[in-house]
Fold:
Amino acid sequence: MGLRQESIHPVGPKSEKQFSTAIVGGGLAGLSLAIGLVQRGIPVQVYEGATEWTDAGAGLVFAKNSMVAMEKISPDIYKAFAKRSSGQGWESKKTTYMDYRDGSTNGALITSVICANTGQESVHRTLFAKDLVALLPSGTFHMGKRLFALDNRPDGGYTLRWADGLSTDADVVLGSDGIKSKCRQLLLGENSPEAVPKFAKEFAYRGMVPMERAIEVLGEEFARNSMVNIGSNCLTTTYPVEKGTLLNLVACQSIDTWEHDEWVVPSSQEAVRKDFAGCGPIMQKVISMMDKPAMWALFDHPECSTFYKGRFALIGDAAHASTPHQGAGCGQAFEDALVLCSLLDDEQVVSAADVEDALEAYDAVRRPRTLKIVNTSRENGEICMKRGEDTGDDLGKIKATLDQRFHWIWHEDLDQQVQQAKSKMREVSKARLPSK
Structure:
């Protein structure tokens, strides 16, 4: 039985671009890129594999670079973010990114890490994603479209084959289908060691509770502001979301191997208490609020030889999924989207054939920065579990490291990054021209 085909229909303002674009994956990376493209008059369709929304990875944190990227992609994205985001609850902590505390005590302060002008802002992932979908024109976003295969067309474009038996033709395919990315496997080769996520040697319990309950258990300061409690081979992270009405809870512990087939397995309060039995009172209070705990294995993508091939590229977690220990992984998705939509909007990119130069430039600029973030996030997890190679359990060394290790992430000049990518694209295009 032959495959039925769905063509991509241009959506949004009339475009001078002579190519169609399919985004595979409707998370924050894919949605922000789609909004940026549509608002620049570039036709796009977004295909999300899930059939319904879930609360997986419910809380996300952002700093200055992420918020600047949102605004530059589209002010509408930043407005949607600001509508839901929660900063530090106390005015005196508005520029604080995170308080790092000694989890072996009742939370004695190790250091307050400052991110000038913005501090830290956090959102509920699913609710924010739904708000971004609402910014797209009707008919642009499709759920229940799980990619099964990708066929090369003679003209250099692609036929996307879906698990539902249908197919779609597109000139350009951008894979933003998350850490378990099918696009990544297809681009790198399913047998490539880089195609699959790597276990980060830790797991997490997650939860979310009403702020009233959090205040009751933790007190005003610890509940209304963002905290990391550092323990031996473990840590807890808490921060407010949804305008401070909820507190997001994460409790991580190191473990050498993951023996389960599934990444998320049910657990119990008894098991959580046992895992964190050696921790101090403040960490015990955090885990006490996890009423229906599940163990979440943490994986990442620490290596990738390329983010593109032809007119096919990876963005967001599909390219560079990270552990949560720098609060920087999701922010990189917005930087990806900014660079990509700026390149595709450039006057030099008109035909489908021009897109490959743009994607080569995107790869050259984005891959080194994002993979550094993946690997330094793992390092920061080690540091905050008192087993960093250079810091161990020395709180003075931990403080000195934390006070300076985030600045290169937050204070990136994004305009310069975009210009660097455009210069690279012109360099690549020039090199492709036949020599006289």
In short: The two ends are 51 Å apart (CA to CA). The chain is about 35% helix and 25% strand. The longest strand covers residues 198-210.
